[in-house]
Amino acid sequence: MKVILTLSLLLLLGFISNAQKKDQLILPYQEIPDYPEKYSAGSVAARMVDGLGFRYYWATEGLRVEDLAFRPTTESRSADETLDHILSLSTNIINAARKVPNEGGVNYSELTFEEKRRRTLTNLKEASDVLRKTNDAEFETLKVIFKRGENTSEYPFWNLLNGPVADALGHVGQVVSFRRTSGNPSNPKVSVFTGRLRN
Asked: Please, what is the angle between helix 166-181 and helix 41-60, to 10°?
């Protein structure tokens, strides 16, 4: 009986381990997608989001509990709090692509690290896919919309690039710096230039 129970437990652990490995493999941006054949507003905007997704993937790959808790000063955000902010920015990005208003008050701190990572990467991949299919004329209708109660503010798509996209890139750089300082540097084989791991 003990042998059967032990074998059953080992099989279950094996299935869980394989499921976790497969789950990691299906997250987008382990590699940056191939570039499009021609330039358009949509392909360039999508490529910027893809670059952010690739950097985020590798900045967050293999983060430990102590990395997430790290903060350079007592006044600074921790790495985990920085990931909350990046998730919020990724939500702004996908909402602009979908033409959906951003409504404040979302608390991401209750999510696990894995949930935050998955949502952020999924938001970026979906935004990239939508933007890539958006023709030049449609970009005139894309707005960054913030809704706070009865008040609504709209900004042109340009503000998404210099706002949430650029801001998220800066914060991803912070996560890379934080993890290096906490003793867990990013994979040195990551090439942000090629969007691949070096051999």
From this structure: 20
